[in-house]
Amino acid sequence: MAELAAAHGLTLSGARPTLPRYLGQLWGRRHFVTAHATARMHAQYSQAGLGQIWHLVTPLLNAAVYYFIFGVVMQASHGVPDYLPFLLTGVFVWDFIGSCVNAATRSVQGNLGLVRALHFPRASLPLSTVVQLFQQLLVTMGALIVLLLAFGQTPTLNWLLVFPALLLTAAFCAGCAMIMARVGAKSPDVSQLMPFVLRTWMYASGVMWSIDSMLRTADLPRWVSTALQLNPAAVFIDLMRFALIDTYGADRLPHHVWPIALGWALIVGVGGFVFFWKAEEEYGRG
């Protein structure tokens, strides 16, 4: 039967296409990805009284809580210049990274009806999640710029480095999203563990405290210090802080940070895409 089907040009329904063809199919669905992301963004707070304002309010409330607990109570602000801009930048960037990983875990499993009813590249689902959250990030970045100006930061040419930093962060998050989408589709219970995993990752990423200050004062094992410095979330947060905050300055950023950020974006972005594509035939089964 297989030989007969091949002789007449028949292929298995839902079979995984080659990687170049899959990329072409995904590019052909780019309008669906953006439309799906935009619709989800507008629907997210459609029942709330403040509506889309919650995109701005949520990270600001998080920053206020972290400032009180870490900046005031635990005094993590000591030795960290411009602590409020430092904290706000970290919270806004982390909110994007953590939300991408958490939401993508359910992107396939939560759309099984769509997956089983229609044939389309399944990578559209986690990617639309990243596009949705990136759109929200662009809105919140506008608010962050206003806040930084209010706290006395001065616009310089270094602020232009925000754009490549955002692109590298988005590429990394897209890879993470596709990895977690496949894992979540195979093991739905993973989504219940993600809040704990992400909370641990956040604390290790220097969102509320300075990794450099701690490394100068704490006697940590070498492997712990290396892991903290190579932590991708900490790297992308550092890129934004050194671009936007006067007392850091892009010229003071260690030269190895940009190559590390590029490496994380390429390895996780490309690797996550291939990892997701390899299971294309399995999504929606069972």
How would you sum up this structure, described in words?
With about 290 residues, the protein is mainly alpha-helical. It has one domain (about 35-280). It contains 13 helices and no strands. It has helices at about 1-5, 20-30, 30-45, 55-75, 85-105, 110-115, 125-150, 160-185, 190-205, 210-215, 220-230, 230-245, 255-275. α7 packs antiparallel against α8 and α12 (about 230-245) crosses α13. The longest helix has 27 residues, at about 125-150.
Descriptive keywords:
single chain; 286 residues; mainly alpha
Kindly report how far apart the N and C termini lie.
Answer: 25 Å
How much beta, percentage-wise? under 5%
Which percent bin holds the helix content?
A: 55-70%
Rg, rounded, reads: 21 Å
How many separate structural domains?
Answer: 1
Sheet bearing the most strands, described? none
Unreliable spans: none
Order of helices and strands: HHHHHHHHHHHHH
Question: How many separate helices?
Answer: 13
How would you classify the helix and strand content by structural class? mainly alpha
Number of DSSP strand runs: 0
Looking at the structure, what is the overall shape?
globular
Give average pLDDT, whole number. 85
